[in-house]
Amino acid sequence: YPDSDFAVTGPFHINDPQARPATQGSAGIDLPLAGNYNLDLPGVVQICDTQLQGPLPEGTVGLVLPRSSTSKRGIQIIPGVIDSDYEGIIKIQVISNVIQQVVKGEKLAQLILLPYRKTIKGQGKIRGSGGFGSTDPSSQETFNQN
User: Fold this and answer.
1) What pLDDT, on the 0 to 100 scale, is given for residue 24?
2) Which residues lie in Polar residues bias regions (predicted)?
């Protein structure tokens, strides 16, 4: 990881020692669900809160990716990008092919932290805790959030 001192509190902050990869060789930090969710709309994107909250360490970007065991249950995770200055709760976009329930603490996705270098100066906007296109209001869509 870019900074060995990085780390996620009722949601965990990324700087909390509990926000660590499961093993020495694990590439990502597992993202435990913050609550129970009924995945009762097959094929529909549902947004689920995790127990992890930003911001990420400066100079990193987070990739939200599925865990390898997730697809065996008929669950798909839509990959996402978490900017380092995002301060809100990290959410995952879930599609289930079958009706099922997922429970608090279950880990469907993982966060991979990668170093990045800015190539263009930002527009000076403050990120805050908005997500899913919040810096471009014209791209906002309505999602089913249980």
Assistant:
1) 81
2) 135-146
| Neighbour tally for 87: CB within 10 Å | 16
pLDDT of residue 132: 61
Residue 109 three-state SS: strand
For residue 141 the two structure tokens come to: 């869509």
In eight-state DSSP terms, residue 5 is: T
Average pLDDT of each block of 10 consecutive residues along the chain (146 residues)? 41 64 85 96 96 90 95 96 93 97 96 86 65 61 49
Question: How far apart, in whole angstroms, are the C-alpha atoms of residue 9 and residue 6?
Answer: 15
How many other CB atoms are there within 10 angstroms of residue 79's CB atom?
Answer: 13
β-strand partners of 108: none
CA dist., res. 50 & res. 33, Å (int): 4
Given this model, what pLDDT does residue 17 score?
A: 62
User: Which token pair is 132?
Assistant: 């899913």
Strands 46-53, 89-96: pairing is: antiparallel
